[in-house]
Amino acid sequence: MEFTVDFNKEQIESIEDILQKELIDLGVQSVILMDLAGNVIVNLDSGEADHDVFSLAALAAGNYGAVSAMANIIGEQEFSLLFHKGEEESIHFSKVADDLLLLTIFNKNVSLGFLRLKVAEAVKRIKTVI
Amino acid sequence: MALINPKKREVQVKIVYYGPGRGGKTTNLEYINRKFKKRILNEMVTVKTYGDRTLFFDFLPFDIGEIKGHSIKIQLYTVPGQVKYNATRRLVLRGVDGIVFVADSMDLRREMNIRSLENLKANLESFNKNLFNIPLVMQYNKRDLADEGIPILSVETLEKDLNSSIKAPYFSASAIRGDNVAVTMKKIIALTVSSLRKKLE
Ligand SMILES: Nc1nc2c(ncn2[C@@H]2O[C@H](COP(=O)(O)OP(=O)(O)OP(=O)(O)O)[C@@H](O)[C@H]2O)c(=O)[nH]1
Ligand SMILES: [Mg+2]
Q1: Confidence of residue B34 (pLDDT cuts 50, 70, 90)
Q2: B26, B79, B140, best to mutate for ligand 1 pocket (most atoms within 8 Å of CB)
Q3: Of B183, B160, B198, which is closest to residue B32 (Cα–Cα)?
Q4: pLDDT per position as a tens digit, A59-118
Q5: What DSSP designation does B168 have?
Q6: What's the DSSP call for residue A26?
């Protein structure tokens, strides 16, 4: 059997620490670091959310894959902003590495601009530990 | 590509039900969802069209307990079998650890089974995987149709068409009645997980 991005315990702890400080502490409801097969690597939340993260990850992997394939068809490498806005909650997708995706779920108390800034910061820091 | 989380001591394993459209893949998962309700913590997710055909995938997470101190989470998926959905079918296959090929026993579906298996082979190759060394179980579904006088392929014919070179374990089944659905699933889990053990030492 092959294994995808095989992180050790220390790496996972560093990633959790980054996601906690950069995102959760600033009011983001929950974050999922996942691979494109739909596996959940790290999942953190602020305690208010009780989402079904495994189903979310499976759907997000499919959604992200479908959107990337659409980008390719129209001649784009990828779309830089992937974001679904709801009345109360929104979901933001960010590619971390080839096979890694960061999913952020946040409510209307957090602005999209601020969130994007923080996600970019978190992604930059995650890249240094993987 | 199973994923091991050494911190939570958790392993996620991806098993995909593949096969021609209307072969009974979704029906397999629906039966498992009913039968093993207690082990399934979340709702089954399905992305389907109006006509009940799978548009993207079905998803069913399934806990099987612990192996070497790691909790094992099995993620069952089905692909959309219709020929036109190959792009989404390939996405679902990404990172697959084990496959159940659900063939339709109906006489009329003989060509479709063969074409779907060829399509599986090609799609696996696009991920540098090989039909011959990935854990695989064959399921010859809809055996119950014989009772209604509908012509079905013999198991020998299905074996010859689909499994003569792969030589995977195979089961006759009726997903709608639940016959051999659990057996098929247990077999693919056993095959897939056995290669995990070494890694978890
Ligand atoms: N008689 C009989 N019918 C079955 C059996 N399994 C599935 N069916 C029926 O066949 C039809 C298609 O079944 P699905 O499970 O939706 O097939 P599928 O493989 O998921 O099809 P796609 O999503 O299009 O790929 C449904 O009407 C089922 O009720 C079986 O064992 N016997
Ligand atoms: Mg289906």
Answers
A1: very high
A2: B26
A3: B183
A4: 999 999 889 889 989 999 888 789 999 999 999 999 998 889 999 999 999 999 999 999
A5: -
A6: G
* Contact criterion met (CB < 8 Å) for B59 and A59: yes
Tokens standing for B149? 């006088």
Return the higher-pLDDT residue of B181 and B195. B181
Residue A4: closest CA among chain B residues belongs to which residue?
B1
- Distance CA(B34)–CA(B40), nearest Å, equals 9
CATH architecture of the domain with range B8-196: 3-Layer(aba) Sandwich (3.40)
Q: What is the pTM of this model?
A: 0.91
Kindly list the residues from chain B whose CB atom is less than 8 angstroms away from the CB atom of residue A9.
Answer: 6-7
Type of residue found at B16? V
Contacts (Cβ under 8 Å, ≥6 apart) of B132: B165, B166
Q: Which tokens is B33 given?
A: 């969802």
E strands, chain A, where? 30-35, 40-45, 82-85, 89-97, 100-107
Residue A47 region by backbone torsions, left for phi larger than 0, else alpha for psi between -120 and 50, else beta: left
Q: Is A83 left (phi over 0), alpha (psi -120 to 50) or beta?
A: beta
- Beta bridge partners, B132, equal none
Domains and CATH numbers, chain A: 9-129 (3.30.450.30)
Q: What is the ipTM of this complex?
A: 0.79
Beta strand A30-35 pairing with A100-107: antiparallel
